Amino acid sequence: MPRTYNKIDAVQRQKIIESVYNEHLTFAETARRYGFPQSTIRSIARKFEKDGLFDNKPRGGNRLPVLNDKHISWIKEQLDAHPDKPIRELHQELNRYFQNNPPVSISCVSRAVRKQAKYTLKLRTCVLGPKRHGKRHIH
Protein backbone atom coordinates (compact mmCIF):
# COMPACT_ATOMS: atom_id res chain seq x y z
CA MET A 1 0.00 0.00 0.00
CA PRO A 2 1.45 3.42 -0.93
CA ARG A 3 2.58 5.67 1.86
CA THR A 4 0.46 8.77 2.51
CA TYR A 5 1.71 12.08 3.77
CA ASN A 6 0.00 14.71 5.89
CA LYS A 7 -0.59 18.12 4.35
CA ILE A 8 0.21 20.61 7.05
CA ASP A 9 -0.12 24.30 6.26
CA ALA A 10 2.09 27.07 7.62
CA VAL A 11 -0.41 28.09 10.32
CA GLN A 12 -0.54 24.56 11.75
CA ARG A 13 3.23 24.29 11.59
CA GLN A 14 3.57 27.55 13.49
CA LYS A 15 1.19 26.29 16.21
CA ILE A 16 3.19 23.07 16.49
CA ILE A 17 6.47 25.01 16.83
CA GLU A 18 4.91 27.26 19.49
CA SER A 19 3.69 24.22 21.42
CA VAL A 20 7.10 22.57 21.37
CA TYR A 21 9.29 25.64 21.99
CA ASN A 22 7.09 28.11 23.90
CA GLU A 23 4.82 25.79 25.87
CA HIS A 24 7.60 23.18 26.25
CA LEU A 25 5.34 20.27 25.34
CA THR A 26 6.99 17.02 24.32
CA PHE A 27 6.71 15.73 20.77
CA ALA A 28 4.27 13.07 21.99
CA GLU A 29 2.04 15.63 23.76
CA THR A 30 2.08 17.93 20.73
CA ALA A 31 1.30 14.98 18.44
CA ARG A 32 -1.74 14.05 20.55
CA ARG A 33 -2.92 17.67 20.66
CA TYR A 34 -2.86 18.15 16.88
CA GLY A 35 -3.54 14.56 15.78
CA PHE A 36 -0.35 14.02 13.80
CA PRO A 37 2.25 11.28 14.21
CA GLN A 38 5.08 12.03 16.59
CA SER A 39 7.58 11.59 13.75
CA THR A 40 5.84 14.40 11.84
CA ILE A 41 6.08 16.73 14.83
CA ARG A 42 9.75 15.83 15.28
CA SER A 43 10.51 16.52 11.61
CA ILE A 44 8.73 19.91 11.73
CA ALA A 45 10.76 20.83 14.81
CA ARG A 46 14.01 19.72 13.14
CA LYS A 47 13.27 21.80 10.05
CA PHE A 48 12.56 24.80 12.25
CA GLU A 49 15.84 24.33 14.14
CA LYS A 50 17.81 23.83 10.93
CA ASP A 51 16.28 26.48 8.64
CA GLY A 52 14.27 28.71 10.96
CA LEU A 53 11.22 28.19 8.73
CA PHE A 54 7.69 27.19 9.65
CA ASP A 55 6.80 26.09 6.15
CA ASN A 56 8.65 23.83 3.74
CA LYS A 57 11.36 25.35 1.59
CA PRO A 58 10.17 26.28 -1.87
CA ARG A 59 10.74 23.56 -4.43
CA GLY A 60 11.95 23.84 -7.98
CA GLY A 61 9.88 25.01 -10.88
CA ASN A 62 9.39 28.32 -12.64
CA ARG A 63 13.01 28.24 -13.72
CA LEU A 64 14.16 30.61 -16.40
CA PRO A 65 14.54 28.97 -19.79
CA VAL A 66 18.07 27.87 -20.64
CA LEU A 67 17.61 28.61 -24.35
CA ASN A 68 16.40 32.04 -25.44
CA ASP A 69 15.09 33.38 -28.77
CA LYS A 70 18.52 33.66 -30.40
CA HIS A 71 19.21 29.99 -29.59
CA ILE A 72 15.83 28.92 -31.02
CA SER A 73 16.41 30.99 -34.18
CA TRP A 74 19.82 29.37 -34.62
CA ILE A 75 18.26 25.90 -34.17
CA LYS A 76 15.59 26.70 -36.79
CA GLU A 77 18.25 27.91 -39.24
CA GLN A 78 20.26 24.74 -38.74
CA LEU A 79 17.25 22.48 -39.23
CA ASP A 80 16.06 24.40 -42.30
CA ALA A 81 19.51 24.03 -43.86
CA HIS A 82 20.01 20.40 -42.74
CA PRO A 83 16.64 18.79 -41.92
CA ASP A 84 18.23 15.38 -41.36
CA LYS A 85 20.74 16.63 -38.78
CA PRO A 86 20.65 14.41 -35.66
CA ILE A 87 19.88 16.01 -32.29
CA ARG A 88 23.28 14.91 -30.96
CA GLU A 89 25.08 16.93 -33.66
CA LEU A 90 22.76 19.89 -33.18
CA HIS A 91 23.45 19.75 -29.44
CA GLN A 92 27.23 19.69 -29.90
CA GLU A 93 27.22 22.51 -32.46
CA LEU A 94 24.92 24.67 -30.34
CA ASN A 95 27.23 24.39 -27.33
CA ARG A 96 30.27 25.08 -29.51
CA TYR A 97 28.67 28.04 -31.32
CA PHE A 98 27.29 29.80 -28.24
CA GLN A 99 30.01 28.58 -25.85
CA ASN A 100 27.37 27.78 -23.22
CA ASN A 101 28.70 27.47 -19.71
CA PRO A 102 27.49 25.14 -18.32
CA PRO A 103 26.73 23.34 -21.57
CA VAL A 104 23.10 22.84 -22.52
CA SER A 105 21.97 19.23 -22.16
CA ILE A 106 20.91 17.14 -25.12
CA SER A 107 17.43 16.71 -23.62
CA CYS A 108 17.08 20.49 -23.39
CA VAL A 109 17.94 20.82 -27.09
CA SER A 110 15.54 18.02 -27.97
CA ARG A 111 12.72 19.69 -26.00
CA ALA A 112 13.48 23.05 -27.63
CA VAL A 113 13.30 21.50 -31.10
CA ARG A 114 9.93 19.92 -30.34
CA LYS A 115 8.24 22.53 -28.18
CA GLN A 116 9.80 25.91 -28.98
CA ALA A 117 10.94 25.53 -32.58
CA LYS A 118 7.94 23.25 -33.23
CA TYR A 119 9.85 20.81 -35.42
CA THR A 120 9.28 17.10 -35.44
CA LEU A 121 12.29 15.02 -36.33
CA LYS A 122 11.67 11.64 -37.84
CA LEU A 123 14.23 8.90 -37.76
CA ARG A 124 15.41 7.80 -41.13
CA THR A 125 14.40 4.23 -41.73
CA CYS A 126 16.17 1.88 -44.02
CA VAL A 127 14.12 0.05 -46.58
CA LEU A 128 14.96 -3.61 -46.77
CA GLY A 129 14.82 -5.29 -50.12
CA PRO A 130 13.97 -8.89 -50.89
CA LYS A 131 16.05 -11.66 -49.39
CA ARG A 132 19.10 -12.63 -51.39
CA HIS A 133 21.12 -15.59 -50.23
CA GLY A 134 19.04 -15.78 -47.02
CA LYS A 135 19.71 -12.14 -45.99
CA ARG A 136 17.90 -8.87 -46.51
CA HIS A 137 19.82 -6.01 -48.09
CA ILE A 138 19.38 -2.28 -47.64
CA HIS A 139 18.21 -0.32 -50.70
TrEMBL record:
<feature type="domain" description="RNA polymerase sigma-70 region 4">
    <location>
        <begin position="14"/>
        <end position="47"/>
    </location>
</feature>
<dbReference type="GO" id="GO:0003700">
    <property type="term" value="F:DNA-binding transcription factor activity"/>
</dbReference>
<dbReference type="InterPro" id="IPR009057">
    <property type="entry name" value="Homeodomain-like_sf"/>
</dbReference>
<dbReference type="GO" id="GO:0006352">
    <property type="term" value="P:DNA-templated transcription initiation"/>
</dbReference>
<dbReference type="Pfam" id="PF04545">
    <property type="entry name" value="Sigma70_r4"/>
</dbReference>
<dbReference type="InterPro" id="IPR007630">
    <property type="entry name" value="RNA_pol_sigma70_r4"/>
</dbReference>
<dbReference type="InterPro" id="IPR036388">
    <property type="entry name" value="WH-like_DNA-bd_sf"/>
</dbReference>
<protein>
    <recommendedName>
        <fullName>RNA polymerase sigma-70 region 4 domain-containing protein</fullName>
    </recommendedName>
</protein>
